[in-house]
Amino acid sequence: MARGIAPRLNQWENDLLAKYFPYNDGRMPKLQPDQFPMLQLGVRPIRFYEIAFPEPCLNDVLQTIQPSQSWNPAYNKYIAVIRKLMRLEKMPAIPPIDDKANFLNRLYVEACAIGLKKDNYDRGPELI
Questions:
Q1: How confident is the model over 42-62, as pLDDT tens digits?
Q2: Mapping DSSP to helix (H, G, I), strand (E, B) and coil, where does residue 89 land?
Q3: CA distance 33 to 45
Q4: Calpha distance 57→12 (Å, rounded)
Q5: Mind giving me the DSSP string for 28-52?
Q6: Interval 67-83 mean pLDDT
Q7: CA nearest to 109, candidates 58, 51, 56, 65
Q8: Buried (b) or exposed (e) across 67-80, using 16+ Cβ within 10 A?
């Protein structure tokens, strides 16, 4: 885990991304270690987001984000624990995209939904 102010964390990530290491996948056994091709350090942050929106817009938000199941089925048990600790409900079925204008480019981004929490109301107005 890493913690810090956003500009310093961004700089730290950029510095990590600037690192390359020798890589031999076994197909080049005759090369000396100093001849191996270089491979960029893979930095893949895992971030938690709380996304707040008006309750009537649930389907629009789900269509926009298009959250999926865990990228690794073995993580489902951990996601269930996090959902329970945060007192969240299971996610409803994700409706198919009906408005391409709301589609976000998710190339190389996996968005996994943990759960849903209903908003509270204060004598009528929804507290988002």
A1: 998 888 888 888 888 888 888
A2: strand
A3: 29
A4: 37
A5: -TTS-GGGSPEEE------------
A6: 88
A7: 65
A8: eeebeeeeeeeeee
Q: What are phi and psi of 67, to 5 degrees?
A: -65, 150
How crowded is residue 90: how many other Cβ atoms within 10 Å of its Cβ?
10
pLDDT tens, position by position, 112-123:
889 999 877 777
CA distance 10 to 8: 5
Per-domain residue ranges for the chain?
Answer: 1-45, 47-128
**What are 44's two structure tokens?**
């893949």
Phi/psi of residue 14, nearest 5 degrees? -65, -40
Evaluate if pTM is beyond 0.90: no
Question: For residue 78, what is the enclosing H or E element?
Answer: helix 76-85
